[in-house]
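dude i think i finally got it to work??
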Amino acid sequence: METKNIMIVGVGGQGTLLASKLLGYVLLKQGYDVKVSEVHGMSQRGGSVVTYVRYGDKVYSPVIDRGEADMILAFEQLEAARWLPYLKKGGRIIVNTQRMEPMPVITEAAVYPEDLVGKMRAAGAEVDAGDFLEIATKAGSAKAVNIALMGRLSVYFPDIPGEVWQEAIEANVPPKFLDLNRIAFENGSKMS
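look at this
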């Protein structure tokens, strides 16, 4: 199998690193060679965070270059737009429609761009957008937005059994948060 590339992008504190850990776990369980590379940036201060996940028969490098990502999982709209040049032609982007205003917008030095989802579609990306924050909140915690997004991502891996995803959640989420994360995952996978 040729190497496939997935980028997970967001803002510090959104759970992007846990999401990459879960995805790596699931892909390893399926027998793939997996490489994960995390770039934290100013993650502690709400800055951009990106994780590269590459998998296949044999993966030699963890880095994804511009135009190579088969899929981008974006926790926030502006981050989705920022990393869009890394998506390959015909690639898919799953984007949480949540807006987290960066410092230039907060200080009124810049304006948050309008209709980013429409602009991504106009650029030729296959866009799967939804309010995953609402899904997470309804499951019991806004912090489960990462697991709701993983639920949506699982739809694009129909050959991977649901039990493998659940096992990944159980292996990586503290027991007291398992139930709400299971609900967030399930509801994310059913989002239409």
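Residues 16-29 form the longest helix (14 residues).
im so relieved honestly
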